[in-house]
Structure formats: structure tokens, C-alpha cells
Design a protein that fits this description.
mainly alpha, 76% helix, elongated
């Protein structure tokens, strides 16, 4: 299965800038732990982790304030792709909520914990949280994209299509919804629909390596690698360190008969992403 592009990084970035969990104003929250909020505003996740840990260790807070600080700490861990540490922070919030009788179905908290589960390759756990989050904020396209990604990880491709469909309906300009649905259509062997969605992604962001790769991969799967070859090359030029994107170009080259070049790129893709089953299978087949 082709891995969906950049969802983990997207999840982390989104989590860092999401709405607050408590009712205080931004200035009031910043006064509690100014270094942490400054770091978040600058997307400096490492400094944010240090600052929020220092604030939490410095004194006791009322439980809603502690929950807010731990939410930000967990989100900063997500930015560093430290899923285990993020999950610990979010679970501490759930423990606080249980002790205090708060709302355990907070959509932001559920969604951010789901990102941690996805980073830890626990998609089934993520789905439970994401379904609760989606019920609370049904128009949040990002939540539906995460839900689609979790279903893809579990090879539940029809469910993934439904989730990505909700994402593109909620926010038609959200690139990941179209890219994700295209990938799900490929798994269902609905190649023409995959191509249509990928073309929409390219229309939204013509220079995005993820969009270009989505269209390249859809055309390869539809047996039209010759049409997609230049797109594959553009995608690699835009993101040469992506194993999935390099693999798409290798597949296109192989389909048009350029086996020697393809073989070299299958090896490069495997070097970049040895954990991908699809990439590993093609590397072993060609080497």
C-alpha cells in the first residue's frame, strides 16, 4: 500500500496551532507559561516541550489550567514526532478529566491523541478517538483526513473513501482530502476516479510534490505511466528524499520499459523508506 503523504507532519503542525482547550483568552493563557506559547507561535516544538515541562514542574495549577498546559505539551511532542511522549501527556489529561468530572469527548483532545496513536502505528485506537472528534466537529476536514488515513492503515479502503469524501465536502480546497481519496480509490481499483481526484489535487496546488505524486501514481496504476512520467519527475525534483515519491517514478520508468533506471530508483526508494511494504517488495523483486 502506498503511504499517504505527510499526514504525520501535517497532524503535528495543525495540533500546534489549534484552538485552546480552556476558556481563557490567548493573553491570559500566555501569561501562565509565556515561553511555551512563544515557542508554539514560532513553531519551535523542542523549545515548547522544555518550557511547558518547566512550567508544569514549577507549581500546582487548577485542573483546567494543567489540562491546557499538558495539551500544549503533548502537541509539541507531536511536532517532534514523539508519539509515545505525546500519548503520555494526553492520557494525563484524560485522568484529570475523570477525576474532576470534565468533558472527556473534547474534539481537540481526542483528535490530538489520535495523531499520537497514528505516529505509534496504532490506527484502531486512533479511529475510536477520531470518530468522537468528528461527531463533535463534523465540518473539520482535518479530522476526517486523519480518520481516512487510519482506515487506510487497516486496509479498510471503502471506509477510507467515505472519510476522505467527508473531508473534501467540508473543505474543497484541502489538498490532503483529494490525495487521500485518490489513494483509497487506487486500493479499490477505481483508477479513473483516482486520476480525477489527483488532478483536482494538482489544480489546488500545482507545485505540491504530494499532489504531483498522487497523479503520477494514479496514472501508473491505470497503466498510463507514459502520461504521468513528467509528473513523477517533477514530484521527485520537488521532494527527492521521499521514498514513496521516488518509488512512483521508478514504477513509471519500469512500465515504459526503462528497467535499468527503474532498478536504480527502486533501490533508492528502499534506502529512503525500508519500512514500506510496497517499496520493499519492489526492491526485492528487482534486485
Amino acid at each position: 500500500m502506498k503511504v499517504l503523504p505527510a499526514l504525520t507532519a501535517l497532524g503535528a503542525a495543525f495540533a500546534l496551532t489549534s484552538a485552546p482547550a480552556c476558556s481563557q483568552s490567548a493573553s491570559e493563557r500566555a501569561e501562565i507559561c509565556p515561553d511555551g506559547y512563544d515557542a508554539l507561535s514560532e513553531n519551535d516544538a523542542g523549545r515548547a516541550v522544555e518550557a511547558f515541562e518547566a512550567c508544569l514542574n514549577a507549581r500546582q495549577y487548577d485542573w483546567p489550567v494543567e489540562a491546557e498546559l499538558r495539551l500544549r505539551l503533548g502537541s509539541a511532542h507531536l511536532g517532534l514526532e514523539q508519539g509515545r511522549e505525546a500519548l503520555i501527556a494526553f492520557n494525563r489529561i484524560f485522568a484529570l478529566i475523570e477525576d474532576q468530572g470534565g468533558n472527556a469527548d473534547n474534539p481537540l483532545l481526542r483528535r490530538n491523541r489520535a495523531v499520537a496513536y497514528l505516529q505509534l502505528e496504532r490506527p484502531a485506537d486512533a479511529i475510536e478517538d477520531l470518530e468522537i472528534a468528528a461527531a463533535g466537529v463534523p465540518d473539520d476536514a482535518f479530522t476526517h483526513v486523519l480518520l481516512g488515513s487510519a482506515h487506510m492503515d487497516l486496509e479498510q479502503h471503502a471506509e477510507a473513501v467515505a472519510a476522505f469524501d467527508r473531508a473534501v465536502r467540508a473543505e474543497p480546497g484541502f489538498l490532503s482530502g483529494w490525495v487521500g481519496r485518490s489513494a483509497a480509490f487506487i486500493e479499490l481499483e477505481l483508477y479513473e476516479r483516482a486520476v480525477e481526484d489527483a488532478r483536482e489535487a494538482v489544480a489546488i496546488e500545482p507545485e505540491s510534490p504530494d499532489a504531483l505524486n498522487a497523479l503520477c501514481w494514479a496514472l501508473v496504476n491505470d497503466g498510463r505511466a507514459a502520461q504521468g512520467l513528467s509528473l513523477c519527475e517533477q514530484a521527485v525534483e520537488a521532494d527527492p528524499e521521499s521514498g514513496a515519491i521516488v518509488h512512483s517514478l521508478a514504477s513509471a520508468l519500469e512500465q515504459v520499459g526503462r528497467e535499468r533506471e527503474a532498478r536504480r530508483l527502486f533501490a533508492r526508494a528502499y534506502e529512503l523508506d525500508p519500512d514500506s511494504d510496497t517499496i520493499a517488495e519492489d526492491y526485492e523483486r528487482t534486485h
